[in-house]
Design a protein that fits this description.
Helix content: under 10%
Shape: globular
Number of strands: 11
Number of helices: 0
């Protein structure tokens, strides 16, 4: 059974940082395209970043370029999203996605003073 479990969300002030984690079981994330998505209240889920099933570099939504960094730890079978210089508009539930296996349960990120 494949499970994706996100963690690391929380409340942070504008300009702050958070690191999200997505730990996988039942699937080796390294072999599959993996991405981070987010869904703000009243809005559709949107793509934030992704990394292919090779060792290519991650790609990012324009609004997070230079602030967010996606990485993958093959040993821990976990993907991360380091989020710096957070803005109120980054507030959303963040979801991990593995191609062919679906979604995690999400983790709430709230950026507010």
């Amino acid at each position: 059974q494949v499970q994706l479990v996100e963690s690391g969300g929380g409340l942070v002030q504008p300009g702050g940082s958070l690191r999200l984690s997505c730990a996988a079981s039942g699937v080796f994330l390294h072999y599959y395209a993996t991405g981070w998505f987010r869904q703000a209240p009243g809005k559709e889920r949107e793509w934030v970043s992704c990394i292919s099933d090779s060792d290519s570099s991650p790609v990012y939504k324009d609004s997070v370029k230079g602030r967010f960094t996606m990485s993958r730890d093959k040993v821990k079978n976990t993907v991360y999203l380091q989020m710096n210089s957070l803005k109120p508009e980054d507030t959303a539930v963040y979801y991990c996605y593995a191609d062919g296996f679906g979604w995690g349960q999400g983790t709430q990120v709230t950026v507010s003073s």
